[in-house]
Amino acid sequence: MLDLRLAPMAGVSNLPFRLVARECGAGLLTSEEVDARALVQGNAGTRAMLRHLPAERPLAMQLLGSEPEVLAEAARILEAEGADGVDLNMGCPVPKIVAKGHGAALMRDPLGAARALRAMRKAVGVPLTIKIRGGWDERTLNAVAIARLAEDEGVSAITVHPRTRSQQYTGRAPWEVIASVVDAVAIPVIGNGDVGSHADAAAMRTATGCAAVMIGRAALGRPWIFATDAPEREARAAIVRRHCDLIQGHLPERIALVQLKKHLAWYSTGLPGAALARPRLFQARNASEVKAVFWGLW
Ligand SMILES: Cc1cc2nc3c(=O)[nH]c(=O)nc-3n(C[C@H](O)[C@H](O)[C@H](O)COP(=O)(O)O)c2cc1C
Questions:
Q1: pLDDT number for residue 156
Q2: pLDDT at residue 173 in the model
Q3: 210 is catalytic
Q4: Do 287 and 149 belong to one domain?
Q5: Residue of 9, 13, 197, 220 to mutate, ligand 1, most atoms within 8 A of C-beta
Q6: Closest CA to 69 of 148, 107, 122
Q7: What is the pTM of this model?
Q8: 217 CA → ligand 1 middle, Å
Q9: Does 131 sit in the ligand 1 pocket, CB within 6 Å?
Q10: Which residues are CB-contacts of 277 (< 8 A; sequence separation ≥ 6)?
Q11: Exposure check for the chain: N or C terminus, fewer CB within 10 A?
């Protein structure tokens, strides 16, 4: 059996989408990235990102940051709020983020990364995991060195998205980097990058020896990718309805509207007339209007 997991995705992997992914068959879930400093400072919006339901467990929550004390304190908060694991984002390539030394910037600061992981490891009892890239750029392909260092610091598992920070999301994800991390450490390695089907996931597992496979973009508008048997049209419609209900039931109205537009646009990809209807979907003024446009296409 393949262990398929939903990738942490900012603005996407929130309570409703995570729960839908779990109901479709996803394994361990991970929250979207949570800014450690904002969390420690008590930012209400950041705090709200920790909300989750028992049915989502096991649920890891992901932190974004670089200062050891701040990350340690944030990790304590996540544990207290019920996280079954704390993950450190070491892969985010967004310029504004890496400029602060967060995300993928930790890949080119091994000492800083080790200090951060040591502080976090001491702070919590739940498993500490990391998500890394292949390296900072073509000249620093140091996923293996970072993985070894993390293992030494007591990290329990490592997700590898093998592109470098400078590749962002372009080109093919070089799966051989995942294989080299699998060879280098004894802890489980989760492979990630360009998996669009069960066949891809099986191929990644065979090619790399990874313990589990994480899926990001291919789950957008297609959370049933986690299911063993592809659901028929009616079952897919029920999943979309369930997702809409969760969005409206668990998110504040303004955020819910944005989420409905975004997800229903993904669910409509490939449906006849979808491209033409897209402006109407995004211009809709309330939830009923967005849903009416979507179900008109389905
Ligand atoms: C919209 C979006 C948001 C993302 N946000 C995060 C994030 O918060 N934390 C993280 O570690 N990775 C994030 N990623 C990266 C994904 O987790 C994943 O590593 C990447 O998309 C490659 O996997 P895929 O080819 O299956 O999409 C994000 C990716 C996308 C497309």
A1: 98
A2: 87
A3: no
A4: no
A5: 9
A6: 122
A7: 0.97
A8: 7
A9: yes
A10: 268, 293, 296, 297
A11: N
